[in-house]
Amino acid sequence: MDSLSNGSRSVWVTTALPQFPELQEKLETEICVIGGGIAGLTTAYLLSLEGKAVVLIDAAGIGEGETSRTTAHFFPPDDRYFEIEEAFGAEKARLVAESFQQATALVESISRKEQINCEFERLSGYLFSLNPAGYDSLDKEFEAARKAGVEIYKKDRIPGLSFNTGPCLQFRNQAQFHPLKYLNGLIKTFQRNGGVIYTQTRAQELSRHDKIYQVITESGAVSAQAVVVATNTPFNDRLVMHTKQAAYRSYVLGIRVPKGSVPRILLWDNGDPYYYVRLTTPDEKSEHEILIVGGADHKVGQDEHPEHRYDEIEKWTRQHFPMAGPVDFKWSGQIMEPADGVGYMGRNPMDYKNVYVITGDSGNGMTHCTAGAMLVTDLIMGRNNSWLDLYDPARTPLHGMGEFLKELGNTVAQYGNWVKGGDVESPEQIPPGEGAILRKGEQKIAIYRDREGKIHSLSAACTHLGCVVSWNAAETSWDCPCHGSRFSVDGQILHGPAAKPLEVVQLDE
Ligand SMILES: Cc1cc2nc3c(=O)[nH]c(=O)nc-3n(C[C@H](O)[C@H](O)[C@H](O)COP(=O)(O)OP(=O)(O)OC[C@H]3O[C@@H](n4cnc5c(N)ncnc54)[C@H](O)[C@@H]3O)c2cc1C
Ligand code: FES
Fold first, then answer.
1. Closest ligand, as measured to the CA of 366
2. Which of 17, 57, 121, 232 to mutate to test the pocket of ligand 1 (most atoms within 8 A of CB)?
3. For labeling, which of 67, 212, 248, 266 is most exposed (least CB within 10 Å)?
4. Neighbours of 44 (CB within 10 A)
5. Residue 171: is its pLDDT beyond 60?
């Protein structure tokens, strides 16, 4: 599905995950987990270890969401420790560090215990600044991270690289892995523990009758005592969570480099735009490795022709890694940025009883989703968890009020697209393989002309809260600039929060 679409193909998707049936009946279980990415599958796995009966459903296939599009660094938070300390205080910064360390350790121990060959590897991660203006924030980060209990060192430059990075911070004991090989292992152990999986099964509605929740899908339903919404961005909250986080797209290239020519480290620069880098090895016999370089982010639905972002990443990579060979992979994916810089995991704000949510991962979903699975498992099992307040999805983003208002203003401005004209005046103006918005009276129509010239026309009104969707030429999709829903050219949902497809309209109606 999404991960394989339109020439955008991640380095991980050569690993095929098992297929599962679609749910076509009404089921009862103890826990229903919605979403089979790293958040949902880890939660389902942990709950199955506790002896719970768990049914997991996914709208697509397991691991076909953002977990197949990640770069899978286990790295410090995108929002720096000094920013978290300034906003939330030193104790909460310490708790963030603790949760990241424990989540990484859990992935390591699960891989060992369940013998999951997912290339889990401990290594150092480096934060650097190519611009001297960034040195001050490196100094602040060093002090705050050390205070938070992170193993961190100051270095004059990153060792082993052919370019001089200038001063940098070394975070020891970080990690990387192959995300889909890890999910594959989790699937096996989850099923061995009695877990049940359905795919191609989209949750459309969540309702409650007394103490029982019902998850309605297109051709079935799951009744459960507790529900975990691990859909990357929640489909069940119409508004609350979506004002507290913003959807960005990030771009990645997988470029061939000779084996051993780049040290096995993680890199992250603090520039604007910023880049993140790691290596992966296609297989043991391979003569080369793949250098994975990501960055060039933008708000979802706010760049119709983002292909130039791949060029920018490639240019930066070739400048700094002259051994870079051909580009073997390129892909983009979605990142949910929390307004105050700290993710959301715990009880769903709209239902304080037994609905749980894991979202707002920023670029830290490997650690954040694993920590979220640990926290949600504790809540369901009735245990205390010291991260509860820190990550509470119900909190008001008081600390991130500036960012919150900025993102809110940006979202409100997108509704102004309704009063603008269309991109084209007639479908004939749209070249094959391209999409554009056409105005027809009060209506806006999203039109895609396929490579054979056939027209696909949809209502341009996003089914979440009615923003006008925008063309994404890099992914051949319709993307919503308000809260990040994405749709295929046939209107099918590629990413939430929308829970319904775009309506098909006839042009001559
Ligand atoms: C380019 C890029 C680079 C990244 N790099 C890193 C990194 O280096 N380190 C890091 O830690 N994080 C990184 N991230 C973030 C990380 O990949 C994500 O945060 C993480 O994969 C999210 O996992 P998830 O399980 O929440 O979501 P997903 O993997 O998207 O899983 C959600 C699942 O829910 C399903 N679903 C959605 N709606 C419904 C519904 N209504 N009913 C049923 N199922 C539904 C979807 O089909 C999907 O399979 C990166 C992300 C991107 C895009
Ligand atoms: S995602 Fe909210 S209006 Fe489109």
1. 1
2. 232
3. 212
4. 30
5. yes
